[in-house]
Amino acid sequence: MEPNWEEFYANQPKPSDLESSKKLLNDFVERYSDGHTRIALVTSGGTTVPLEHNTVRFVDNFSAGTRGSVSTEYFLEHGYAVIFMYRIKSLEPFSRHFTGQKFLDMLDLTERDGKPQLTVSETYSEDVAQALIKYKSALKQGKLFQLSFTTLSEYLWLLRAASQALAPLGKRVILYLAAAVSDFYVPSNEMSVHKIGSAVGAPKIALHLVPKILKPLVNLWVPKAFVISFKLETDENLLISKARASLNTYNHKLVIANMLQTRKQKVTMVDKDKDYVISLTNEQMNRGEEIEKYIIDDLVKRHEEFLSAKETS
Ligand code: PAZ
């Protein structure tokens, strides 16, 4: 049986800084009560599920935060203001371009008046400058606000707070739920307080189902927003049917379906009436093109249509 989301929330520990995050969210949203700027809430990266209260071990997943961080850059290019809700230490917009590099290899030292002077190494300076210009410009215009989470419960509390803060902006809001959120968790009252020991043998840990948060999100928290969820599968035969089932159950606008193995090259956009593929050729991949550019181009058009459509109710 599906667990009740209200009971579930009541038993999830609140992040200690939730109230200050809510204040920052409200301040950000307030800036866009101008009636025209479009706003995207992008969730990104994976959630952890702690196995102990004093957490040494946790269940995690593969998500690197590529989808969310790249998409954020393209939303900003289209003039959107973005709340980027991301897993700590996963990829972030703009700095993601340098994540594969060794930080110290990107720097050079010179000397002036006998003192060491730090510069960006010539190999990287053009790319760093480009990324920095865009990042600083987004911050200066107040268009990018970042919020971070690690655990499933932190994610869920922040998602609810962000959705509720955005609700007054109605149809101008896109929720782009790209984070890989755990479907399972260990309830607080079943969790070991201290590090699970091995002296008594292998532990038996029962994972419980997390309720589907899309339900209250779509129906109660942001009923007017353009909500997009993602569906990840490893078995191609299930992908589209599961995406469609999710749409029919939660009644949101769109599911972006992707396979673990090919997620950087191909996605399927699934709505109530149709589905279509967005993909990159091998040549585009080799040129370093990013599928998120095409996903966001498509979404911006769809959001535009959604905004100009007459209310039916
Ligand atoms: O973060 P990433 O770029 O490595 O992966 C992106 C993704 C596969 C997590 C995302 O596209 C997605 O499908 N998110 C939802 C996953 C889910 O079905 O829970």
Number of strands: 14
What is the chain-wise order of helices and strands? HHEEEHEEEHEHEEEHEHEEEHH
Shape: globular
Strand arrangement in the largest pleated sheet: 7-4-1-8-11-12-13-14
| Fraction of helical residues | 25-40%
Percent range for β-strand residues: 15-25%
Average pLDDT metric: 96
What is the multimeric organization of the chains shown?
Answer: single chain
Number of helices: 9
Report how far the terminal alpha carbons are from each other.
33 Å
Determine Rg (CA atoms, Å): 21 Å
Notes on the protein architecture:
The protein is an alpha/beta fold and 313 residues long. The longest helix is centred in the middle third of the chain and has 19 residues, at 122-140. The protein has 9 helices and 14 strands. The structure holds ligand PAZ. Residues 63-67, 178, 180-181, 230-232, 258, 263 line the site of ligand PAZ.
Topology:
Blueprint: H1 5-10, H2 18-31, E1 39-44, E2 49-50, E3 58-59, H3 66-77, E4 81-87, E5 107-112, E6 115-120, H4 122-140, E7 144-149, H5 152-166, E8 173-177, E9 184-185, E10 208-209, H6 214-221, E11 226-233, H7 236-250, E12 254-259, E13 266-270, E14 275-279, H8 282-286, H9 291-308
Parallel strand pairs: 1-4, 1-8, 4-7, 8-11, 11-12
Antiparallel strand pairs: 2-3, 5-6, 9-10, 12-13, 13-14
Helix pairs in contact: 2-5, 3-9
Bound molecules: ligand PAZ.
Residues 63-67, 178, 180-181, 230-232, 258, 263 line the site of ligand PAZ.
Kindly summarize this structure in a few lines.
This protein has 313 residues and is α/β, with parallel strands linked by helices.
